[in-house]
Amino acid sequence: MTSTPQKTVPGVVAEAGDVPRTGRGRPARRRDHTVPPWLFVVPALVVYAVVVLYPSLAGVMYAFTDWSGIGGFSFTGTDNFRALLDDGRALESVANTLLLTVAVVVVQNGIGLLLALGVHTNIKSRAVLRLIFFAPAVVSPVMVAILWKYVYNPENGAGLNGLLGAVGLGGLRQDWLGNPSLALWSVAAMVVWQYAGYSMVVFLAGLQGVPAELHEAARIDGAGSWQRFRYVTWPLLAPALTINLMLSTIGGLKLFDQVYAATNGGPGTSSETLSTVLYKEAFVYGKFGYSTAVALVLALFVAAVSLVQLRYLRAREVTA
After folding, report:
1. Res 181 pLDDT > 80
2. Considering Cα of 307, then 190, then 110, then 95, what sign does the dihedral take?
3. Nearest to 134, CA basis, from 188, 91, 70, 198
4. Which among 94, 101, 198, 233 is most buried, taking Cβ atoms within 10 Å?
5. pLDDT band per the 50, 70, 90 thresholds, residue 45
6. CA 182, CA 267: separation in Å to the nearest integer?
7. How far is CA 28 from CA 31, 33, 100, in A?
């Protein structure tokens, strides 16, 4: 029995399964109103290009000019970079930056690891201790510097000097920020105090990812606390160590806020860093071309150190 073809009457809704057809009997194409996904990325890319890419490329260009921040400029080739190599203050700031970075990286991560091991135990106050140790990391670096300027008050009865006198160690009292041989290390101490808790949190996340079964198996095999840490915990902390070392190294190399707020690079140039030098060259002396050259050298230096460090640490994660 053959079925008769159904005709679609204008104004009548087609039944389910009916396919709209053109006048020639071919199926009609449905218009796709779906927005391409890449269009959603365009606004963010425009903002990124205006806020990041353009200033960065302009800074690279200005590094080869004598721009003073106002008015026109002329290209000077590599004169700014040659002046940087002949600038004793800038070269001293490089040494200070490296010393400060090494001190911060080693001490901050060492203390952070000890704190993480301490609060990873089953003590009842571990939640409160985690909060106390991490709290300084969320405070503004400028506020931390102002606070520590009171701690480093050179008066005998104030701050750290007063505490030393109270416990019978008055002979150790110093002008912590006014002594050229102590100013840089005093700044390093305040940076470590602020960010040791941050390193603790990263190490703590790594410790919580270590399976308890491995520790239990090592304990059954007769391994002591140090052996369990050395052969079980430490290798599995490799990803957390990579994150902490990368963050602390980059932060130390570009450190500015605490140094400028606490010592302004002084006394003399004893605590100058590359970041304070480029700031002063731009906003104090008006040498924007020279300061962008310093900034470019700093950026390339940070990138090179970070890439070498990351490659080494990633290789250590594989072999750990």
Report:
1. yes
2. positive
3. 198
4. 101
5. very high
6. 10
7. 10, 16, 72
Positive/negative CA dihedral, 151, 154, 155, 160:
positive
Reported as half-sphere exposure (CB side, CA atoms, 13 A), residue 312 has a value of 9
* pTM metric for this prediction: 0.82
Decide if pLDDT at 19 tops 80.
no
CB of 287 within 8 A of CB of 108?
no
Q: Give the pLDDT score at 104.
A: 96
Whole-number Å distance between alpha carbons of 313 and 304: 14
**Coil/strand/helix, residue 75:** strand
**Exposed e or buried b for every residue in 267-276, given b needs 16+ CB within 10 A?**
bebbbbbbbb
Helix 288-319 to helix 79-86 angle (10° resolution) is 80
Q: How many angstroms separate the CA atoms of 120 and 127, rounded? A: 10
End-to-end CA distance of the chain: give it in Å, rounded: 77
Nearest to 194 by CA among 272, 294, 104, 261: 104
Q: Helices 274-283 and 88-119, interaxial angle, to 10°?
A: 130
Summarised one tens digit per residue, pLDDT across range 235-264 is 999 999 999 999 999 999 999 999 999 999
Element (H, E) at 246: helix 238-253
